Amino acid sequence: MASRVRTVVVLICIASALFTSVQADESSTSRLTLFPGKSAAIARILEKKKIRIGMQKDYHPFHFANPAPDRPGIDVEIVQSLARELNVETEITYGDIPELMRMIQRNELDMALGGISASLPRAKYVAFTDPYLISSMAALVAIKSTTSESQSLDFRRQKLRGLSDLQNLPGLLLGVRENTTTEEVLRGSRFSQFRVKTYLTHEALMNGLMSGEIDAMVGDQIHIAYLIAQRPDLLNKFLPLLKPYGQDHLCIMFAQGDAEFANYLNFFIKEMTRSGALDAIRQKYAGSDGVQS
Predict the structure, then answer these.
(1) Which residue from 1, 27, 43, 238 lies 20 to 30 Å from 12 (Cα-Cα)?
(2) Angle at 274 between CA 271 and CA 280, to 5 degrees
(3) Which of 17-26, 40-49, 54-63, 121-130 has the lowest mean pLDDT?
(4) How is the beta sheet containing 89-95 ordered, strand by strand?
(5) What is the tally of structural domains in the chain?
């Protein structure tokens, strides 16, 4: 009996010590200054209780114009997580990348994303976080444009797996979104044997491919993998080239000159990666077709 009493007393003492420790930790945290680095962006976000987000227009699966309630898009789910961490709301504005860059410089947005790739030319005007997703360039190629009919479709699928394999098909007309890092690559010397046609929107680019206006659509690997997952019938007419070609770093874009904001966004991305939350979001929309995070 005495032994049981001693055990109960010890357990009570341990619980009391833990409770006191938690109270002390909460008390000490409450005396700390929230974001002491004088970040103008963070100060404005906390004061207004709102993050002003720029999002690249209707770029699946990063954002959807008319989303299902549980599938708003990869990048929308990311900013929703960030807003929850800061206990603020989101205000989303849509535009193309040059427009979003101008809005950031005019201090009309706190950040922008939506499948936006970091690049040296863009870094002259805005800042970028570390990548939250690492994708690659990929393509959908019309089967009728690949080779002579003497070769079987299975042979062509084995022969054409990534963008570099297009070197075997010089003269194709490649379609791409204008003002993108993908267009920059296609305009370079490695693809000089191809013709390039640009489109203002992803919808127009896809329509150009479906109508036979172009031989292949070149774009982001995640986007093309999503299209195939949503429309398996595309494989009847097109070959997906999903083997990675270089790296495409998808990053959050924000104004230059705010180190504390940059540090916080980068740590947020690291925590999303460490916890597995980022990978779960990616898998939900794009599966595992060679996409890294």
Answers:
(1) 27
(2) 100
(3) 17-26
(4) 89-95, 50-56, 111-113, 253-254, 127-128
(5) 2
Using a 10 angstrom Cβ sphere, with 0-12 exposed, 13-18 middle and 19 or more buried, the burial of residue 246 is exposed
65 class by beta-carbon count within 10 Å (0-12 exposed, 13-18 middle, 19+ buried): exposed
Decide if 35 is inside a domain: no
- Is residue 9 in a domain? no
- The pLDDT > 90 percentage for the chain reads 67
Q: Are strands 195-199 and 173-177 parallel, antiparallel or unpaired?
A: parallel
Rounded to an integer, the average pLDDT of 56-63 is 88
- Pair 121, 260 in one domain: yes
What residue numbers bound the domain in which 166 lies?
137-246
Decide if 7 is inside a domain: no
Tokens at 232, concatenated: 């398996």
Supply the pLDDT for residue 174: 97
pLDDT tens, position by position, 239-282:
999 999 999 999 999 999 999 999 999 999 999 999 999 999 98
CATH of the domain at 261: 3.40.190.10
Same domain flag for 166 and 71: no
**Residue of 37, 108, 79, 103 whose CA lies nearest to 261:** 37
